[in-house]
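Extended Data, panel c. Modelled sequence:
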Amino acid sequence: MSAKLWVPTLTACALATSIALVGCSNDKKDAQQAAASQQAPMVEVGVIVAQPQNVEKTVELAGRTSPYEVSEVRPQTGGVILKRLFAEGSYVKAGQPLYQIDSRANRASVENSKASLLQQEANLNSLTTKMNRYNQLVGINAVAKQDYDDLVGEVKVAKAQVEAARAALDTAQINLGYSTIRAPISGQTDRSSFTAGALVTAGQSDALVKIQRLDPIYVDITQSSSDLLRLRQELKKGSLDNSNNAKVKLKLEDGSFYSTEGNLAFADASVDSGTGSITIRAVFSNPDHLLLPGMYTTAQIVEGVIPNAYLVPQIAVSRTPAGQATVFVVNAKGVVETRIIQTSSTQGQNWIVTGGLKSGDKVVVDGVAKIKEGQEVKTTPYQPVAAPATTPNNPVPKPANAASQAQSSSKQQAHA
């Protein structure tokens, strides 16, 4: 009877034990699956392969345009201006008439000089004839030797007077030519400072008009003496090669680049004691007169070529608290390493790296913030993302603020 009573109890206990064991087994499998599902996937980063190359080292310096030639036109004879013969602001050629001055006084001076020359020539002819006659008579003692010598002196004086009269005539004719004021150079004119009816004098301080030659045009660039010293030291050490005559690019005030490159003309031989800088002059072709005198520009000058340098995007480079430049490099095992590099300057969106990298290094550019040293990563070639173009017909959409988003959401809910 006792055994029969305990049979149901033992059966129930065995059933409960088996259920508990099955439950524990299922919980263990679920935990393993959950841990496997929670394991993070391998981080994927964009890399570039470092390749040495010859990189141009450029420097941006402030500059200002100035005309290639300048002429302030002033009268070289006096008189009243009768007519202006050019349009203000127009292009004039060298020798083109600009103003007409009343020439009656100068013309009368020319006629007077001609008459004076004729008079002196007549006097010379008379004395020459008399001297020739005395030359025959002095041989037979028909005239005194002293009289003949005096006559020879008078002939010489008469010749000098003829030359003086001829020079006076030339001067009068030159002044008559100055009655028509002509352009000394070809170029663009400014506004005229004098009008018809104005009285002008030779050598006056006020210019009638200014002419500027704008094609080609100069760009005067300012460089500090410290930068010049650094450049010369780099050239001396051989870390920079400037064997090629570098061109100069010009960035205009609106941020665009001038279509034509210029050439360096000269550099000052001394440093300005007031500013501590030197002036470098470049020459640019300016056929359309897009560049005008006095415009502020930025000149990009190629100082030289850095051999065996690397170009690394700036977003890949970070700085340590000590100021050292570092990059993440993925080694052959796919593990991230920190590499200290030496930078020279920038070229566009890239750093010019002169040390710390070797050919073939995989430099992390995309995903730098997601990794750390010693982490295993998956690499893909870095693809730069181009900025979206903004046009009047296709503007870049502006992000909506929180209020407008909430209002739009409420309208959609109400409509639903």
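Residues 21 and 95 are 115 Å apart (CA to CA). This feature is highlighted in the accompanying rendering.
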